[in-house]
């Protein structure tokens, strides 16, 4: 989501005649896009800004420094008070004003700007993609379909930083997707804080299909589009209509990132998640019945207030039972103004760390086994481009969302290819096209 926001702001500035700087040392404007899901992310952004102020600002006093994103939204003016070098703080519903604000600052009309107000209809305002200029059209693109979240999980700051759920219309989203496909995009990931709640208020169910499934159907119609993904859903959104969509829509990839957060019913209730362990396991079972090859990943929080050793062991057991392809584990972090921050029985940091370690070992062990299972098998990937770590290798993803590296060249970019998997590394597969495509 944040990458998508950064890309939209960059595209907006490029459209106004700015160009992307190679490094921050030569940039005239440096905007840090921030996340506040955990305290660690906030501290990192603040530290980075302090370094920029000390290094870049010292040599070039005219450089404009700004924060955007969730921390900008939740802290606002406080950031200017704490970091006097900061010129600009743009809230999550105000991205589309970035160019105007920069103009005011660069022309000297205003010295500092903080805007974290809510904006009516903000969901339709940001849709620019970096398609022009020197940037090559990417093979895979993100499309924002909704913003905000009304779930109010007790640990989560997102409803306060992103605001109420607002959805774009289906024709508007389809038009953007069509445009991307006409420029060479092959895979689209529909984005939102809680995508399965898409259009809930405005679009009535039709023939048993929720608004979100109606959207999947509409996007699926786009000729030339090869693959559809979405993130992040909420388990409560996995009704039979969505499960059937996996079986029905060939472009919908066999992959699901479904945050479970905990394997214990009492903790799930305290978290205000709205499902039980049993219900979650039922969804996984149905998904695997519909698509046996489906890749399933999740998010888990350890050390939520009141989580006992026994509760945690239920989460461990759930990880064993489901055998996630991967799981992102988060040590519970107290977020201001969230109900969980003041709940009794906060878990000591040391125990949060210890549980994190134990769960990580389990997740890695299961993940390694799942990845090794692919060795010797033939699998289909969409080639995205050179690997980030080693530009001599090309990188693609399987339909179940596993990264595969192989010796290829730029001409493979954007192609759907069959590879034979020869080796598995840490959450990465290695493949050989030669064997299959002789
Ligand atoms: N502490 C730790 N992890 C959190 N997440 C959200 N809020 C918190 C918090 N306060 C995690 C959840 C969510 C993921 C994006 O971040 O697991 O799914």
Percent helix: 25-40%
**Structural class, please?**
alpha/beta
User: How many individual β-strands?
Assistant: 17
Contiguous low-pLDDT stretches (5 residues minimum) are none
The average pLDDT is 94
What hetero molecules are bound to the protein chains? 5'-deoxyadenosine
Number of helices: 14
> How would you write the strand order of the largest sheet?
13-14-15-17-16
* Distance from first to last alpha carbon: 40 Å
Beta-strand percentage range = 15-25%
Largest sheet: 5 strands, mixed, barrel
Radius of gyration: 22 Å
Describe the global form.
Answer: globular
Tell me what the structure shows:
By secondary structure, the chain is α/β, with parallel strands linked by helices. Helix content is 35%, strand content 20%. It has 14 helices and 17 strands. The protein has helices at 2-15, 39-59, 70-75, 77-82, 98-106, 158-162, 170-182, 211-220, 240-248, 265-270, 277-290, 309-322, 349-372, 433-436, and strands at 29-34, 64-69, 88-90, 113-115, 140-144, 146-147, 166-167, 187-191, 227-231, 255-257, 295-302, 326-331, 378-386, 394-398, 403-406, 416-425, 428-432. The protein has a five-stranded mixed barrel. A four-stranded parallel sheet has the order 1-2-3-4, with helices on both faces. It is globular. The chain starts with a helix and ends with a helix. The mean pLDDT is 94. The structure holds 5'-deoxyadenosine.
